[in-house]
Amino acid sequence: GSLLAAADLRKVYGPTTALDGAAFSLHPGEIVAVMGPSGSGKSTLLHCLAGIVTPDSGTVTYDGRELSAMTDAGRSALRRSEFGFVFQFGRLVPELTCVENVALPLRLNGTSRREAERAALSWMERLEVADLGRKRPGEVSGGQGQRIAVARALATRPRVLFADEPTGALDSLNGERVMELLTEAARSAGAAVVLVTHEARVAAYSDREVVVRDGRSRDMERLV
Ligand code: ADP
Ligand code: ADP
To answer: For the chain, which terminus, N or C, has the lower number of CB atoms within 10 Å?
Structure first.
């Protein structure tokens, strides 16, 4: 069955209908690209799936539990323990070193500093940024920063990685490298991925594509 599923999602912001009956499903370990033009509702769909935004109507079910039936604290705990996030801009903490950034979610989950930094370095090795551990985010390139953000997102071993335009700020060469390493690391970690992108060459790294248009979603047959 589905690990994460949504049906009939509707979300209105004032005069704007962001979602108008969107549906979605994700199987364990699957990489699904959510495509569509700017403003079509992709990010709103991702935020509903992750329990960050509450839809006006419709359901989101994670591992048999309906998110709307949970408390804010319950959804928050679910995000911390089961989900990982990568955004367009790494959102690394500028005052911390890169290895401290990757270790941070583990520290917040109660892992000792020593163990968290050991795990962080091993994830950074997989993302080929282990040599940047002692640098601060301001001293690394955009592509390196995104690879560090991916290491941070996977270090807690989430079952779902949410990636919202993870290569949106990168040139195509760096973007492809981030996608290669992100998908390889997610697959080896057994994490499913919800990948929001408007770029076909980024979506090509997925197993399946869902297209959102005017707040409605549909599954796409791969044309190639
Ligand atoms: P996409 O990710 O495909 O660019 P979004 O989900 O961000 O689309 O946005 C869908 C529509 O909803 C857009 O018209 C956007 O301006 C609007 N929208 C999204 N979030 C908000 C918000 N917090 N407040 C008001 N309007 C929003
Ligand atoms: P962009 O739209 O340029 O990709 P962001 O990646 O910063 O910008 O934000 C994407 C969406 O995530 C926006 O709709 C914004 O409202 C929402 N957002 C930004 N920060 C947070 C946050 N800390 N928690 C939840 N939602 C957020």
So the answer is: C
Q: Are strands 4-13 and 57-62 parallel, antiparallel or unpaired?
A: antiparallel
| The residue to which tokens 């509702």 are assigned | 41
Are residues 168 and 137 in contact, defined by beta-carbon separation less than 8 angstroms? no
Q: How far apart are CA 156 and CA 143, in angstroms?
A: 21
Closest CA to 83 of 158, 185, 153: 158
Q: Which residues contact 141 (CB under 8 A, 6 or more apart)?
A: 174
Cα distance between residue 193 and residue 84, in whole Å: 9
The token pair that represents 50 in the structure block: 């992750």
Complex prediction ipTM: 0.73
Tell me the CA–centroid distance for residue 224 and ligand 2, in Å: 32
The stretches in the chain having pLDDT less than 50 are 224
Distances (CA, A) of 187 to 17, 26, 157, 204: 35, 14, 11, 15
What pTM was computed for the model?
Answer: 0.89
Q: What is the pLDDT of residue 223?
A: 53
Atom of ligand 1 nearest to the CA of 196: 2
Ligand 2-lining residues (CB < 6 angstroms): 43, 52, 87-88, 164-165
Atom of ligand 2 nearest to the CA of 91: 7
Ligand nearest to the CA of 215: 1
Q: Is 35 helix (H, G, I), strand (E, B) or coil?
A: strand
